[in-house]
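User: Structure with zinc ion, tokens only please.
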Amino acid sequence: MPVVTGHETSGIVVSVGDAVQNLSIGDKVTADNAELCGHCYHCQRGELLFCENFAAHGVHCRSKVIQSHAAASVVQCFWLTVAI
Ligand SMILES: [Zn+2]
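Assistant:
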């Protein structure tokens, strides 16, 4: 099976969507690489790691995260309090 390396990530926010209120350009963040559907039985119950459509960037699917720019959902971003 091909594996695209690069699933642990951190970076600096360079843009945010219009609806984003709790992240700002310049914030230092890490991002959960899990991609969840949000609609399946398990997602609706909050059992996110059992998502029927679970995929992990840099492990299962399409995009790696070791690159100059990567997109992440705001709910997957967590502020870093240490220097990166
Ligand atoms: Zn799901």
